[in-house]
Design a protein that fits this description.
The complex is a heterodimer of chains A (about 280) and B (about 260).
Chain A lengths: L21 H26 L11 H13 L3 H32 L1 H16 L6 H8 L3 H25 L3 H9 L4 H38 L5 H10 L3 H29 L9
Helix pairs in contact in A: 2-10, 3-6, 3-8, 3-9, 5-6, 6-8, 8-9, 8-10, 9-10
Chain B lengths: L12 E10 L7 E11 L4 E5 L6 H9 L6 E6 L11 E4 L11 H11 L4 H14 L15 H14 L4 E5 L7 H17 L5 E5 L3 H7 L2 E6 L2 E7 L8 H5 L4 H12 L1
Parallel strand pairs in B: 3-7, 3-8, 5-6, 6-7
Antiparallel strand pairs in B: 1-2, 1-4, 8-9
Chain lengths: ~280, ~260
């Protein structure tokens, strides 16, 4: 017969959180190798005249355009205006969309009623509303923020709701039998449980907020990268357009990296996750 | 015989002719329990045994207030059951630990729901984790713990709110044999030690486990109580001494026949 003894329980090695390691370094080496390769292909395409040189200027021309944007003092105010609007839109979307989405997940009846309308709203091309926002809020930052918000808020709502619906039944039962109130279910179960989905929404939401803001600037605005793109496109100064797009992309990826770091510190409890 | 007191007056748990039908949405209702009656005295550890699907878990859910009886009456300490009652704790087969909380924070969960102050919560959690031999794992996340450790954290979480009635649904069934024996003995030690022992409803499909832990083994078949057998042996018990009892084979065989 088995004697009742305390089993020796080794902490499962594979379940221990993995932090960094040699593999990460290799990834960064490869990552840093991508831009030079892309530049090489670009230069080659330019040399071989694969495209009209007005549409595809050389990397050098784009680099010069970047420098001249910087020197003329045009770049920073406009970039700040665009990124600022996008970040405000992102923050507002998260603050409004997340709790609303969590509630929709907790109240299936409310979703049954509102779901079709929210889906319909979400499928509307909100860029078309930009003129309305401009008339309502003026040509300043507010109308850009409004367009970005109108696009990104749904991402938070849908993701937060999905996060709640994905909550483990066992967890729900445990919280209920421990006497959780509705508010406690919200704060102690659904919100932390939906956190991974909310972070996914942040990454995606940033892309969409930026898209909304830049589109809105292209349609009507006084400042912003979108506005610059319009004026440079009008004179077919594509080098400037590409320079602006590359700078925007660089800032967006920097923000994504910051988000990733915040996520890693907040969601350290997850056994392992793709980066 | 005297006039019967109101159901559940002196009982920890009282079920009177309880029927539970499942199957809404126009389908033919399926009766899980059919006129089941059962009384449990305070401080008793009652094992509920039966084939899977016989309604053992439904019975616990009924007492926990997670399921309502279709007919009949249920009383827990004289009151109708309600989900999240302060005097009832529920331990499931799966640990259900929240993965974003450390072991200690998981144990604190029920105390948080009750609005207990932070330092008191932390002390209670630490001492309970010590009782289940996990004082070294206070700040580890569930993903860093083995199955057996996780279930001991779940046990500590359930005990943290000090419920007078403990519902245990196959609490150790998800563990391998050796871990099961160890976690079970941790539980029995804690339960044995208490001055004011908790009332326990312990669901298991393992007859030997039932005879090891319980004061009384109730077998359920066909939606009602098939047999109700007192276990005569003294405590503390362990697996070896219980199996060595002269009347163990007879008891085991009787129960086995009841379930067949």
């Amino acid at each position: 017969m088995v004697s009742v003894a305390h089993e020796v329980e080794a902490v499962d090695e594979t379940a221990v959180r993995r932090r960094g390691g040699r593999g990460r370094l290799g990834v960064w080496v490869w990552r840093l190798a991508v831009p030079p390769v892309a530049l090489g292909i670009w230069q080659l395409a330019y040399q071989l005249r694969l495209s009209n040189r007005a549409l595809l200027p050389s990397p050098r021309t784009v680099w010069d355009a970047t420098a001249s944007l910087q020197d003329s003092g045009v770049l920073w105010p406009n970039l700040a205006s665009t990124l600022g609007a996008a970040l405000v839109a992102l923050a507002l979307s998260a603050l409004v969309g997340t709790p609303f989405g969590v509630l929709l997940g907790m109240l299936p009846r409310a979703w049954e009623v509102l779901g079709p309308y929210l889906n319909a709203l979400n499928s509307m091309p909100r860029i078309a509303l930009a003129p309305v926002f401009v008339v309502l809020l003026g040509v300043g930052q507010s109308s850009k923020v409004a367009v970005g918000f109108s696009v990104a808020v749904f991402i938070f709502m849908m993701n937060a709701r999905a996060g709640v619906l994905g909550a483990d039944d066992e967890h729900r039962r445990v919280c209920l039998t421990l006497g959780a109130s509705k508010a406690q279910m919200f704060w102690k179960l659904y919100v932390p449980g939906a956190l991974p989905a909310i972070f996914a929404a942040l990454r995606l939401g940033m892309v969409y907020a930026l898209l909304g803001v830049v589109s809105s600037e292209i349609l009507a605005s006084q400042s912003g990268v979108g506005q610059l793109i319009v004026s440079y496109s009008a004179t077919l100064s594509m080098a400037y357009v590409y320079a602006l797009l590359i700078i925007l992309a660089a800032f967006a990826s920097a923000l994504t990296l910051v988000l990733g770091a915040v996520e890693a510190s907040l969601l350290g409890w997850q056994p392992s996750r793709p980066r | 015989m005297d006039a019967k007191p109101a159901p559940g007056c002196e009982h920890a748990v009282a079920l009177r002719s309880v029927t539970v039908d499942f199957g809404a949405n126009g389908r033919v209702p399926r009766s899980v329990l059919t006129g089941l009656s059962l009384d449990v005295e305070p401080g008793q550890l009652v094992a509920l045994v039966g084939a899977s699907g016989c309604g053992k878990t439904t019975l616990l859910n009924l007492v926990a207030g997670l399921v309502r009886p279709s007919t009949g009456e249920v009383a827990v300490f004289g009151q109708p059951p309600r989900v999240g009652r302060q005097d009832v704790g529920y331990l499931f087969a799966r640990d259900g630990l929240l993965p974003w909380r450390t072991a200690r924070q998981n144990v604190e969960l029920g105390l948080e729901m009750r609005g207990q102050a932070r330092h008191a919560r932390r002390d209670t959690a630490a001492s309970l984790l010590d009782r289940v031999d996990l004082s070294s794992a206070l700040d580890l996340y569930p993903a860093e713990l083995s199955q057996g450790m996780r279930q001991r954290v779940a046990l500590a979480r359930t005990l943290a709110t000090d419920p007078a009635l403990l519902l245990m649904d196959e609490p150790f069934a998800a563990l391998d044999a050796q871990t099961r024996a160890s976690v079970r003995s941790v539980f029995l030690d804690i339960w044995d030690d208490e001055l004011d022992r908790k009332t326990v409803l312990f669901v298991t499909h393992d007859l030997a486990e039932a005879l090891l832990v319980a004061d009384r083994v109730v077998s359920i078949a066909g939606g009602r109580v098939r047999s109700d057998v007192p276990v005569p042996w003294s405590r503390p018990r362990d697996e070896r001494s219980v199996v060595g009892q002269r009347d163990f084979p007879a008891l085991y065989d009787t129960l086995h026949a009841d379930l067949g």
